[in-house]
Amino acid sequence: MTSTRTQPRRLGIMGGTFDPIHHGHLVAASEVAARYDLDEVIFVPTGRPWQKADQLVTPAEHRYLMTVVATASNPRFTVSRVDIDRAGPTYTVDTLRDLKRQYAESELFFITGADALAKIMSWKDVDEMWDLATFVGVTRPGHVLSNQGLEGVELLEIPAMAISSTDCRERVREGLPVWYLVPDGVVQHIAKHHLYSSEMPETEDPL
Ligand code: ATP
Ligand code: MG
Fold it and tell me: Less packed terminus of the chain by CB within 10 Å, N or C?
């Protein structure tokens, strides 16, 4: 009898604050998708990122919408609400547990930039994470890429995009353009809702 079983789907997971999403995130996801032959990359905007607990972060619905706008044209890119719908601070291990439950038959690849990877050992329940996904660390200008000898963490050189969300927010605040650093629809969302200008929008802002 011939087996009708197909290969497990290969799912990339691109976690981030996405405040705002920019072309560095999109190139990272696209490059890992191509090199690892991924069927889909799920972008997962964080709820309240625990690493940024002391900083003002734009309301999740804005970050979610900008992520949807930025990924809409790519048939392999999708966006998940798991982290923004979960109460409390976001830990990557919870993201992976939730997505593993949702996509039990799929193989997961967690995509992370060099800076985030460097902090990996401080993450909650770090040992469990290796069982849930393969970690793919990608190069990022200004940061050293290393897996610190960890098995289960693979490294990939990607086209260098010297863009950060912090820099994009500062540029908007200073009246400098963010065209071509972020997708056009994200430029327009920022302008329409006056994000990053003088005051951050209220958390209750219904958009
Ligand atoms: P912030 O400046 O607010 O921290 P950021 O630009 O670092 O924003 P994050 O949302 O914090 O963006 O990053 C999400 C993920 O994308 C992290 O794994 C980060 O390392 C990675 N990443 C962000 N920008 C780049 C880039 N330019 N090249 C490669 N990876 C990136
Ligand atoms: Mg960051």
Answer: N
